[in-house]
Amino acid sequence: MRCTAGRCDGFLRTLARCADGVLCLRALRYLKASIICGVIAFLVSSGLFGLGAFRVADARLAAFVGESSPPEIGKAFQYFLMLVGAFGIAWTTIDISRFPLKCAVAFVAVAECLIAVWVAAMFDVYFSPFATITAMVAAFLCGLIYSNTAAGRRKQVLQQLIGERVSPATFPALLDCDVPLKFEGEVREATVVICEVFNHGELMREMRVADYVAMTNSFLRNSADFLIARGGYLDECDGESLRVVFGAPLPDSTHATRACSAALDLAEHLDAVNRECKEVWGHTFDFRIGINSGEMVVAAYGARQLGTFSVAGEPVEFARRLCTANTIYGSRILIGAPAYNAAEGTVEVRPMEMIQRSSDGMQKEEVYELLGRAGALREPDQLRRDHFWKGIVHFRSHQFPEALAEFQKAIEAAGPDGPSQFYIARIADIHTGNAPLDWGGPKQ
Known about the structure:
Strand content: 15-25%
Radius of gyration: 31 Å
Shape: elongated
CATH architecture of the largest domain: 2-Layer Sandwich
């Protein structure tokens, strides 16, 4: 799908002003199409009605229901019914994706119109259904024609490939964007957030299967719903992890900032979920989060029945490696340098490792731990960050006694700290000659 910034920025700015969870935009594209189809159908039926095209049919139907001759028909009422029928059928035919359901709605509407003739006859009133039925049939045909165009199929395609993987506010934005859907693929700057649980083995051993499944689903549902509500696209969700993309399908120049903000809030939200899990099941999840930005290929992948919109590329895989690396450092949220550079000024971080991502070994890149929003850290956390940062500087300069002192001060400032304890242990390993860390990236 291609939606250039210049053509969609205004629409995205409007979307960004929506209150959380509130739909400020509807399917404007389909509303406009329904109005056009309804006007066409109304003009056709009202023209025929004005020319008296239904008089003979009215006389025969009146005789059939027991009226010797039809009384004078109220034109204002007939025009009102034509208008309502035309716009109602046009809207449902265009908005409903499944063809059988389109036909069913139109058939029921026509049947109700015919039934109204007999109901009115019971009160000695003749109701002419022909003009209204003509309006509905014309609207149905116009709606079908539009539904078979690229614009008309847009909703069906989006529901098939994206469905409920985006928020109720984002789906109308995708539907109304005036750029054609191109799912054959394009390179897009985006940010990937991966949240994974790392104590599944322990939970499976200690819990009943039904409880394990219920607890896992609670975690996945809470995580997915939370990130989707924050504007993310749920790309992947399995029994142990989920992957959410910011900056696709809709482009977003602030994707990294929004992803970092959502991840920080998600961690707090999942802490609350863990407290509930502890009360109900007596267990908690060991979850970690990895965030990475970069150029990735966004496209529709898979077969027709299993096809879905997704992202692919090295930045996506590296986000998963970052998530796993949390278990090594004792951190909770790790972000890559591209994500930090894009969100710089809005987040608080501390350096974790200089890594080598390229195969030629010529370029190294920093990995950071995401601590919070800019200026939002408590004083003890600020002290811990500052001491840790100094410790890293000494460590990389091979000033190990000074580094050890700073890491210990970081722990004293705000209590137990996984990354500080990791580097304290690492300094001990260096003194004993043990091999340096390697999780598929870091090199000393």
